[in-house]
histidine kinase
Amino acid sequence: MNNWTLQKKWTYSAAISIFISFLAMCIILYFSIFNWMLISEKKIAQNTLNEVVGFFESRGPIISIQDIQRNKTLLNQLVNQEQSVRILNSDGIEILRINDASDFPNFSSEVAFEFELQNINNKLLYHNTAEIDFGSFVGYLEISHSLQNFSQLMNYILIAMIIFALIALVLSAFIGYSLSTILLKPLKELRDEMQEANQYKFSKEITFQYTNNDEIGELLTIYKQLMNEVSETITKQDEFIHNVSHELRTPIQVVEGHLSLLNRWGKNDKIVLEESLEISLSEIQKMKKMIEEMLKLAKRENSNEVLETDVSKVLLGLQKKYKSLKPEVTIIIASDLDEVLPVPQTALEQIIQNLIDNAIKYNENKPEINIEVTKSNLYYVISIEDNGVGISQKHLPKIFERFYKVDASRTKIKGGSGLGLSIVHALVKEYNGIIKVESKEHYGTKFNILFPKMTNE
Ligand code: ADP
């Protein structure tokens, strides 16, 4: 069953369900007809019995056996073609038999008040015995009503129903197959499209067209979204690998250059040795930092942390940390928020720390950073404003890109990798937030981070 195609499953289930419903209907119908006809047959037999008894009663209170025999022709007309009637004396000896269409069971003097269904010589019949008392004659009247015609008719009906059921089975299989072919066609086309996409390593455009708003339409929409995401991820990955290799190649080349310099003739020159070692170490430090940041970025993408953080606690913690690490930096916090933010603590710490680091790094004054936390109808807002060098308008749209540096030489001096803001951006986005930046060269920069309020508020 597991290996069956959807079409096969569909065809079989449609055929079986239609067939079973038809069969159930036939069985109900057959037994209803059976019972109804059996009751009618019983009524006919009962009528004949009443008419024969009535006939004798109409002949007067005293009739002899000769009278009865004389009236045989008249009695014959009362009795139906499928019936036999016989009159027996009190000893059970048959005196008169009218019609011989149906057999009688062995005589028994027990009188039944109802017609009984009996099977004699494999023939179904209704049988009844009544006592008769005509004054000069006392005996029994027996009536046997053959159900041969009824059995034949029921057999015909049964055969007809079996034939119809078989036709229904074939027809339902055919309908099931045709329906599944029509309905599964777009699904098959979508499957082919997916196979092709896989074959062309997701670089092929989706050509499959389907406008209906049903499950297949939904599947196509999801598939398109998925494909866009996949190709976007592939592009980003390519770009990332390109950038990483480029960024790492430079320091490696520098280190390599200095080491070969030392290898050739610098070993004995103390000045060259010291300078080369210092540069190499600093380049290695840079590489280390860059690799750490890249790892953080990659780790973030799979994180699974608790989405509740007390922002004031995080800010106070960072303020304390910078006070001891960099006493020249002033961090002013204004927060009246007594609620928690829908972001994990480590993520929020990393976001704010990266922004503070930049505010200190890209600053030619004594760094002063103002952090304010507020809330609007829909968002919690964290603003981080510095008095640094600022960013010109033409660079602003690009600063969140990976490895983007406004001023490569300045960044180099400051030990930046161009990854800090892209980490911030990725984190904010991951928790459904928005990051905005406004800046004025030589005056400072302000980052606004907006996190949506929880939906149950
Ligand atoms: P890095 O990790 O090298 O600092 P970022 O991604 O954090 O790189 O920043 C990208 C660029 O944006 C930096 O090269 C820097 O010129 C500029 N920048 C970032 N933050 C600030 C800021 N607060 N003030 C001025 N320039 C900034």
